Amino acid sequence: MFKKIILLSLFSIFSIYFLTKTQAGNSMIHHTSISVNDWEKSLNFYDQTFKELGYKRVMAFDFKQDGKKIYLAGYGDEGRPAFWICNQGNPDEQIGKARGVHFGFLAPSVEAIQKWYNKCLELGGKDNGKPGPRAEYHPGYYGAFIIDPDGWRIEACLHDYKK
Length: 163
Known about the structure:
Blueprint: H1 2-21, E1 32-35, H2 39-53, E2 56-65, E3 68-77, E4 80-86, E5 102-106, H3 110-122, E6 126-133, E7 142-147, E8 153-158
Parallel strand pairs: 1-4, 5-8
Antiparallel strand pairs: 2-3, 3-4, 6-7, 7-8
Helix pairs in contact: 2-3
């Protein structure tokens, strides 16, 4: 119980710190997290695919809770995690089965989106929309869609695409 209190306190401190450091541009979401089934496979998947978009694992830790080892890893840039994966979650929830949920990650270029998409497929992701312009979203939108190995729907996109 004491470790859980310490972890929650540290998480709150990190959240307050990162909240003050990430309020820029049109960013709306501070961070989000998902549970994964195969920790090592997911860690490898996100380590390698995020690298193609210019992101990396910026934080990772583990602890024991109720006799189980809990692993967490946070991805982002400039030391600020915005997307977390964890090997545990609410036992009443199904991993990768949330209707309508998908996560879009900003990409620096069309080339980065293509590399991300290819790396995702190489590491067990499934195509859910090939890279390309999506003018129906808005004129400068370009994106690619993948279903990760756990069934989570993810996307890499940019907003200033020009032919």
